[in-house]
Amino acid sequence: MKIYFATTVLGDRSAVRTGRRVLATLQELGHDVLTEHLFEEGAFESDSRLTPEQIFQRDMDWLTSAEAVIVEASGSSFGIGFETGYALGALETPVCVLYDAVRADSISRMALGLRHPRAEVLGYADADDAVRLVRERFGDV
């Protein structure tokens, strides 16, 4: 399955370590994660080589081709909010929003309150819990 796994590049990246574990799990399960570069140390520098228009077009192409969207919302940003809304409003793509439950007080209420037939919002206790949640939902390729 092609998965668009969103995380912030410019915002709080403290959840990237957990995101890397989730990314590795998705790849072990046989999924094609279109946005794996977002979880690398140099994600900002890598994307800085592109114009904003190039990033927008690339990401829209990936979103359009994705069969599922996963959002790591612990480090909220406008970009991941846009991607979530676009996937739910303009596409038929299911969305899974993951967030660090300990940080719930600092995460967008829009993200935590999301109720949509194709969306689920899942808080995790730690990286192992995030991996478990992803295995449960994406274990069957």
What do these coordinates show?
The chain has 141 residues and is of the alpha/beta class. The protein has a single domain, classed as Rossmann fold, CATH 3.40.50.450. A 5-stranded parallel β-sheet has the order 2-1-3-4-5, with helices on both faces. It starts with a strand and ends with a helix.
Task: Name the features.
single chain; 141 residues; alpha/beta; Rossmann fold; globular
In short:
The chain has helices at 16-28, 43-48, 52-65, 78-89, 109-112, 127-138, and strands spanning 2-6, 32-33, 68-72, 95-100, 119-124. With 141 residues, it is an alpha/beta fold.
List the SSEs and their pairings.
Blueprint: E1 2-6, H1 16-28, E2 32-33, H2 43-48, H3 52-65, E3 68-72, H4 78-89, E4 95-100, H5 109-112, E5 119-124, H6 127-138
Query: Mean of the pLDDT scores?
Result: 91
Number of domains: 1
Care to count the β-strands?
5
The CATH architecture can be given as 3-Layer(aba) Sandwich
| Rg, nearest Å | 14 Å
Task: Report the span from N to C terminus.
Answer: 6 Å
Q: What is the percentage of strand-forming residues?
A: 15-25%
- Can you tell me the overall shape? globular
Q: Estimate the helix proportion, in percent.
A: 40-55%
Structural class by SSE content? alpha/beta
The main pleated sheet reads as: 5 strands, parallel
Reading the helices and strands in chain order gives EHEHHEHEHEH
Per DSSP, the total helix count is 6
For the largest sheet, list the strands in their spatial order: 2-1-3-4-5
Q: What is the multimeric organization of the chains shown?
A: single chain
Q: Class, according to the CATH hierarchy?
A: Alpha Beta
Low-confidence regions: none
CATH topology: Rossmann fold
